From TrEMBL:
One of its GO terms (molecular function) is ATP binding. This is Diphthine--ammonia ligase. It catalyses: diphthine-[translation elongation factor 2] + NH4(+) + ATP = diphthamide-[translation elongation factor 2] + AMP + diphosphate + H(+). PANTHER family: DIPHTHINE--AMMONIA LIGASE, DOMAIN OF UNKNOWN FUNCTION 71 DUF71 -CONTAINING PROTEIN. Signal peptide: none annotated. Its EC number is 6.3.1.14. It comes from Prasinoderma coloniale.
Amino acid sequence: AATTMVRFVALVSGGKDSVLSAAYAAAAGHTLACMANLRPANTATQELDSHMYQTVAHGALDALPACVGVPMYRRGIVGGSCVTTLQYERAKGEARADEVEDLYLLLRSVVRREAARGIDIRAVSVGAVASDYQRLRVEDVCGRLGLTVLCYLWLRPQPQLLDDMVTCGLHAVLVKIAAFGITLDMLGQTLTEARDKLQELGRDYGCHPCGEGGEYETLALDLPALFTHARLVLDETQRVIVEKDKFAPVAHLIPTKVRVEPKESARPAPADAIVVCVDADEREPETEGAESAADAAAAHLGGVSLSEVCVGGVAVVDALPRGAPGHAQFRSFEACGTPRKGAGGEATAALASGGEGGTVQKYTAEDVADSVRSALVAIGEALAKEGLGWRDAVYVHLYLSDMGAFATANKAYIEHINHKNPPARACVQAKALPEGALAAVEVTTAMGAREGREVLHVQSVSYWAAACIGPYAQAAAMHGLWHIAGQIGLVPHSMELAEGARLQARHAAANASAVAERVGAPLHRCMTECCVYVSAARGDDARACADEGGAALAALCFGEAEARRPGPGPFGWGDGVGAVRHPPLYGSHREWWPATTFVALSVLPKGALVEITPVAAQWLAEDDMHLRVRDWAWRTPPPQMPPKSPRDIGGMSPPATARDAARAHAHVDVDVDCRGAYVPGRLASLRSVATAAAPPPSGASHAQMGEHAAHALCDALQAAELSPADVMCLRVYAVGDWAAAAATAAAVERALGGSVHAAPVAAAAVGGQANMTADVAVVVRAVRAAPGRATGGDGHGS
């Protein structure tokens, strides 16, 4: 991610958006090295039938370098709009002639020519505001060139953005009009003159105030923050009327005489601020048939057993697909064997892994990466047996024994999952994993037809939400059940962590909320469950982190979603977030709360203090769909003590079956708290926690607590008109070592019955108390597809 200041090239069309985006990138601290522009190959042509590029008034752009003070590279557009699907797949034959490849060739020339001048181009600024079509194509090109996309206008509210343009002194004129209500007399008007009319058309007729629907195009003549040497002046223009309609004329303006007017007290532009045409640069295509990272890894593994390429262990898949229609879940880990040997025959000390009997063995980051590889290979083989592949994966939960190996483990992950529209992902460090494993992987996949699988993957750095510049998406769904990637407290425009637990929690919640809003599953209406990981690295601060995470979630649940508040002025970069009130789903009823689990871990990614991982059901946004909530708690007394009355929460007593089963097996005094959010007969997200009132529990009491928690879940499933056979996700957290976690997991499986034996139990011991006050936490998601009812979303494919 663009966490450091870099040199960037501004991709400019001459319009207001691309110019303002470049100014925002410079205001964020990045250095503008040059500009790049695509124009018609035939310079006499004013407008192309392009889905990507603005070309009207392109003749005026030759004067831009003298105004901005940096060179501008230009290339002609020879391709057409051949691949018009939302996703750009250049593997298709027609992609060779697509206009997107002209952008690739232009930026490749820029990178090479600037490198020859000793300038390392690392990023590209673009002016996309709301077009996934354009953003995805720019991200595709930049991904192939190893460049970061800076897209600071992305999803900014257009009325506010238009006002910001005027406020910051952006002087632009309308050079094309093509929408109802925009009359011929507005052609040539400045943005300031046209603003009120454009805002009115947006309010009354749904037009895009910033012209994102093609309503109009502009030519920027001045922007004080970017045009530091001179401004453009249009001395003569020619009006061309394409369609003379009384209510929606189509016309454009051709600048025929353009003058560069130096600014007062400004130095002349540098001598290298010129236009450089790169049409003659080589046009050789990318190497055809080049191996992908995954193909190369497969070739490397060919003919070699897993035990030879891993850390002396065996990759184990302990769960096969089962559960709810349309879903499956796999889990794999590598049983830990011998540490990797260094050149001298000794184990290379880098990372510590807890072994049996409290012993500590040393492993390298590459050992952890090998464990990730073997787990992914094993899951890949299991997927293949079911006729599935990694493109069916919806969510990946990656557990590492040491977060210090994250970068190396992530490279191993990319070897297997590097396709477009990857699954969402959460990555955490666990205190102990099965059989001393260094890594464990849990994968939720889509079963059957892929039409129900949806992905939101935005790689551009923006104000909107934290970018996913990596092999995972912000969110992925199957039939409208959205899994949102683990969100930490990153400030999106800088991709840096906010300061302190409070701001980190609020930014994490704001990131998650922005993603959920984009996919049509706003968290204040649709969140069914959430796991909040907090860092225990600072000891007692873990509880404070949990409190902040809970407060941020409460704002979402009760209709006060967190949203970013820009700093002062149009180029302010405040890190603050402020509350934006939504109509609460349940009015003033503030008892609604999804199944939420707080888990303290020793280390989170990037040293974050809070990580939020929500799940949201998109179809709950429908007016006739509502979650029901049950919350109950009780204590299971020792056999020699008389039964205590259950504690009644929210006017609902715990089911008698759960109490009776718990008391019949009680050997320790255990508090059980179970909460469920569900739609009867369709979905249940449940969280059950158990705590021993006695001193620190032994492995035996962990098993009993797991059993009690599971009995409560059985009754909750029954109340939701579901059964253990509908369970698609079952995760266990236990305080202590792996023996305690394993005992808990085994007890949960026994208590839930044989019908769940094939469901995955992702048990991981944590460095603090699960749910912050409990010894055991069990999280269950059960889903049953509604017969004859479409549950898909609105077609997000990005």
